[in-house]
């Protein structure tokens, strides 16, 4: 409806959130006990392995490859260093607030817990911003759109790798990451990042080769 009526004052992502809030409110008002809402419980595995892959595929399929690869170094720099800086800053602020007693849900004696939260929260996806910038009425600069879109695609993967690396060194009983473990954690981050890129390229090339040499069967008229 937003695209049909060209109502660009409300981004599509905001409209989807409003619909979800409305459905949740109706379900909450219609339920008499928490057990009545059991059918609305969402399995995270369903999101990661069923709903998320088509979204990533659509983003890559509709990506303007010329603009992306023309600015790939800037995009990778924004995604890599931006996510690392965001993780360190958010994790440091969270640890400072925890030690000051302002945040009680974070263990102040374990800085790894703050870094885990920083890596988790640094995966920013500017869906609303991109939907506004992509509107034909705004006529946004294509370079700016490519940088924001490319960074938003890559920073999720970097944040996931960071979280996985921190999780391997996280011990709820103690601050398990020592100074001698930092090179190993850094190498694990680099290896997982490079390995993920290689796996993605191999699968992409294999799918491209398969689709190129696959013909749909045409039924005789």
From TrEMBL:
<keyword id="KW-0915">Sodium</keyword>
<feature type="transmembrane region" description="Helical">
    <location>
        <begin position="7"/>
        <end position="26"/>
    </location>
</feature>
<keyword id="KW-0739">Sodium transport</keyword>
<keyword id="KW-0472">Membrane</keyword>
<dbReference type="InterPro" id="IPR004709">
    <property type="entry name" value="NaH_exchanger"/>
</dbReference>
<feature type="transmembrane region" description="Helical">
    <location>
        <begin position="46"/>
        <end position="63"/>
    </location>
</feature>
<keyword id="KW-0813">Transport</keyword>
<keyword id="KW-0406">Ion transport</keyword>
<dbReference type="InterPro" id="IPR018422">
    <property type="entry name" value="Cation/H_exchanger_CPA1"/>
</dbReference>
<feature type="domain" description="Cation/H+ exchanger transmembrane">
    <location>
        <begin position="5"/>
        <end position="214"/>
    </location>
</feature>
<dbReference type="InterPro" id="IPR006153">
    <property type="entry name" value="Cation/H_exchanger_TM"/>
</dbReference>
<keyword id="KW-0812">Transmembrane</keyword>
<keyword id="KW-1133">Transmembrane helix</keyword>
<protein>
    <recommendedName>
        <fullName>Cation/H+ exchanger transmembrane domain-containing protein</fullName>
    </recommendedName>
</protein>
<feature type="transmembrane region" description="Helical">
    <location>
        <begin position="186"/>
        <end position="211"/>
    </location>
</feature>
<feature type="transmembrane region" description="Helical">
    <location>
        <begin position="75"/>
        <end position="103"/>
    </location>
</feature>
<dbReference type="Pfam" id="PF00999">
    <property type="entry name" value="Na_H_Exchanger"/>
</dbReference>
């Amino acid at each position: 409806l937003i695209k049909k009526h060209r109502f660009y004052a409300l981004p599509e992502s905001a409209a989807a959130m409003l619909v979800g809030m409305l459905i949740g409110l109706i379900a909450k008002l219609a339920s008499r006990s928490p057990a009545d809402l059991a059918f609305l419980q969402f399995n995270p595995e369903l999101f990661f392995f069923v709903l998320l892959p088509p979204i990533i595929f659509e983003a890559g399929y509709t990506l303007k490859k010329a603009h992306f690869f023309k600015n790939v170094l800037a995009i990778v720099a924004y995604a890599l260093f931006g996510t690392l800086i965001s993780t360190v800053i958010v994790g440091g602020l969270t640890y400072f607030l925890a030690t000051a007693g302002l945040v009680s849900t974070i263990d102040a004696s374990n800085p790894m817990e703050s870094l885990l939260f920083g890596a988790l929260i640094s995966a920013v996806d500017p869906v609303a911003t991109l939907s506004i910038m992509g509107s034909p009425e705004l006529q946004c600069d294509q370079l700016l759109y490519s940088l924001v879109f490319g960074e938003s695609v890559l920073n999720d993967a970097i944040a996931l790798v960071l979280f996985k690396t921190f999780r391997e060194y996280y011990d709820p009983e103690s601050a398990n990451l020592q100074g001698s473990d930092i090179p190993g954690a850094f190498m694990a981050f680099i290896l997982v990042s490079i390995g993920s890129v290689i796996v993605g390229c191999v699968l992409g090339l294999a799918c491209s080769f398969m689709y190129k040499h696959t013909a749909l069967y045409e039924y005789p008229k």
